[in-house]
Write a structure and sequence with these properties.
With 215 residues, the protein is of the alpha/beta class. The protein folds into 2 domains: 2-39 and 100-212, Ribosomal Protein L4, Chain: A; 46-96, no CATH class. The chain has 7 helices and 6 strands; from the N terminus they run ββαααβαβαβαβα. It has a 6-stranded mixed β-sheet, sandwiched between helices. Helix 3 (103-119) packs across helix 7. The model has no long low-confidence stretch (mean pLDDT 91).
Length: 215
């Protein structure tokens, strides 16, 4: 087990908790993280880019002029890719980019990414996060008191997730606030700092370690 310090929102110590090594003690797996990030990015592609080939261009198929005797280059169709408004050679067509990783590999990749941030000393856990009203100034003061950079990923539990919390961090360009259900390898590696609530850490431990052990 790994002993982790839980802080209050003012930066003072609240308590120490124990976290499974399956969540924060995983080795760095470069190939697995690469595959997880690549699949995540590919799944974000719409795949709707489309162009017309020579066969798709509407219009007459009649030869613009006869083959020989005019002194001009021979042309078979006005839909030729060499002509303006003609077809496109090897242009993009709608394509499905979605792929998936096995569940065990997903969990291991996420644990590896989170463990990397923990080894760097860039993970902070707080008792909870709650804003009475959406205030960017209060969000900046919170990050400063916890000694976290503006480039921080805030992960809260689904119970704590509300519009006031998200809105407070939305005006910080490099920060991002998500719930545990949205946590993924790409977001963890993208941000320099990670801010977790205590309940979010419990949720992630149950999701990653609990399912891995079959609990």
């Amino acid at each position: 087990m790994i002993e982790l310090e839980v802080k209050k929102t003012d930066g003072s110590k609240a308590e120490d908790i124990e976290v499974s090594e399956g969540l924060l003690g995983e080795e760095f797996h470069n190939d697995l993280l690469y595959r997880a990030v690549r699949i995540y990015r590919n799944n974000g592609r719409s795949g709707t880019a489309s162009t017309k080939s020579k066969a798709d261009v509407t219009g007459s198929n009649r030869k613009p002029w006869r083959q020989k005797g005019t002194g001009r280059a021979r042309v078979g169709s006005r839909a030729s890719p060499l002509w303006r408004s003609g077809g496109v050679i090897f242009g993009p067509k709608p394509k499905e980019y979605n792929k998936d990783l096995p569940k065990k590999m997903k969990r291991k990749a996420f644990a590896s990414a989170l463990s990397t941030r923990y080894e760097e000393g860039n993970i902070c856990v707080v008792e909870g996060l709650e804003f009475d009203a959406p205030k960017t100034k209060e969000a900046l003061l919170l990050l400063a008191s916890l000694e976290l950079p503006k480039d921080t990923l805030i992960i809260c539990s689904q119970v704590e997730d509300d519009w006031k919390l998200r809105k407070s961090f939305s005006n910080i360009p490099t920060a991002n606030c998500i719930s545990t259900s949205q946590a993924n390898v790409y977001e963890v590696l993208k941000h320099e700092g990670i801010l977790l609530t205590k309940s979010a850490l419990t949720d992630l431990e149950e999701r990653i370690v609990g399912q891995a052990t079959g609990v």
